[in-house]
Amino acid sequence: xxxxxxxxAASGGPIGIIRVSGAQAIGAVSAVFSPKNGSPxxxxxxxxxxxxxxxxxxxxxxxxxxxxxxxxxxxxxxxxMAEIQCHGSTAVLTAALDALFAHGVRQAEAGEFTRRAxxxxxxxxxEAEAVHDLITARTVEAAQNAAAQMMGxxxxxxxxxxxxxxxxxxxxxxxxxFPDEDIDPILFDDAAALLHQTTSQLYxxxxxxxxxxxxxxxxxxxxxxxxxxxxxTLLNTLLGRERAIVTDIPGTTxxxxxxxxxxxxxxxxxxxxxxxxDTTDPVEQAGIDRAMAEASASALILAxxxxxxxxxxxxxxxxxxxxxxxxxxxxxxTDLPQQLDEELLKKQFAHIVHLSxxxxxxxxxxxxxxxxxxxFGETAFDGxxxxxxxxxxxxxRAAERCEAALYAAQCGMTPDAVVMDAEGAIAALGEITGxxxxxxxxxxxxxxxxxxx
Length: 453
Description:
Elements: E1 5-10, E2 15-21, H1 25-32, E3 33-35, E4 50-55, E5 61-70, E6 81-87, H2 90-101, E7 106-107, H3 112-119, H4 125-136, H5 140-150, H6 155-177, H7 185-207, H8 209-217, E8 219-225, H9 231-239, E9 257-263, E10 266-272, H10 282-297, E11 300-306, H11 313-322, E12 327-332, H12 343-348, E13 352-354, H13 363-373, H14 389-410, H15 415-433, H16 439-447
Parallel strand pairs: 1-7, 8-10, 8-11, 11-12, 12-13
Antiparallel strand pairs: 1-2, 2-6, 3-4, 4-5, 5-6, 9-10
Helix pairs in contact: 4-5, 6-7, 6-15, 7-14, 14-15
């Protein structure tokens, strides 16, 4: 924490940003940046862009750009900070970093800026984790949820529950310290009411993780079907472009083709697979084996059937692989005369969609059905969905300990029985806010961040 650190915070475009934090941040940037107005950068107003020239470690002109200083404690990390906003080429950014390193600055580690913000009480641990979610968000909805959590949607709620439990525990401790005093039964009633409310809220938050995980990671979805059922055409229609090769020759698709498709509010991670059939071709068989394995691990199966043909043995393989999974039967090729008897499909699939992947007719119904099939309808993304597995596990533990404390309070057990479980819940909630988390956990969390954030 005593070191001054620097890293590239943005690159790959016309503008690059180098971020510096620590006691020597402003001085180090002042050593390599000369304001055009002739005044020292160290005397510049905080949070005001200054135009000037950037020099390399040998003092040679490197770029004409901007710098800005941020003075503690009103900064992201809580320390003095400075940024260089220069042209975004790798050569310029690398030379600028080398110049800073020559003045005693070191390379920041992954997530070190946000870690310093957490350690300096600029944000809680849940807010810090939301920063990572915001950086890695793949949909607008995921970004909205992460942004709300970064502003305290989870941390504030958890802190409020933790504070109330701490107050309750303190009251019980006072009773334990004075055993000669009669215990007011209202104390147990009030504790039970608080624990009941808190337990319900914690379970709701923990149970939102399944939907939150879908929001963050997307839904693994596999397209299954016999050869020439229209799987690749369906993938192309979903994407709105020609991604997979489509021919009348059976076995054209032999390997997995993976693409992301936005469907409503969710990201669908779609995999097109080899057509399921008996084959003597070892390459095609390898593709079929991979299709089977992908279907087993998938959260949603789009089982494609050729409506212009009767059910055959190859379709039975699709039916068998779809059994026990969330699946939608896609009765394709409705633009052709229909021969498929739907009765067998109705026995296994709750939903059958008639469509023509070739013309797009029926796609709207499929797209509206997919989110509902996986239990993800329209919702507001206000940070209420827990997207972090560590937080979800801590919430579940806190809920279980609150529930045990509630049982103790309702049964009129001794105060220490209520206190023991309530303190367990408080500790679990502290893992979310960061107040009781171990150093090893903190290190692991920030190691997943990118360098420069």
